[in-house]
Amino acid sequence: MAKSSVVRASAKQGGQRGSRQLLICNAALLVLVVASAFAAIYSTHACRALYAQLQALESSQWYLHEDYGRLVLEQSTWASHYRVEKVARNELEMAAPDMTMYKVVPQ
């Protein structure tokens, strides 16, 4: 009987040790699952914030391209040959020289 009680005591002690290890393992896994859940929540939030920022930048880019197109059109209007000649004649009172005013320089 003494031998069987020692075996039972050691089995009981081994069972307690095994249940303690199982409890620690379960607690560690629970901590890892919760940490993984928080990481997923954080990455989703960061993704949504970055996507909102991307949409704002794309909208800004669209407005800038629109303004650039208007400015290019305005520049081509101001720099057209007809307008430059008209301003030179009317506002600056410039005129093309007569043929008598040309001088040919020999080489």
Architecture overview:
With 107 residues, the protein is mainly α. It has a domain of 73 residues. It contains two helices and no strands. The longest helix is centred in the middle third of the chain and has 77 residues.
Would you identify the regions where 5 or more consecutive residues have pLDDT less than 50? none
SS elements, strand count:
0
Overall helicity: over 70%
Q: What is the overall number of helices?
A: 2
Globally, the shape reads rod-shaped
* Structural class label: mainly alpha
Order of helices and strands: HH
How confident overall, as mean pLDDT? 88
- Percentage of residues in DSSP E strands: under 5%
List keywords for this structure.
107 residues; mainly alpha; 2 helices; 81% helix
In summary, what is this structure?
This protein has two helices and no strands.
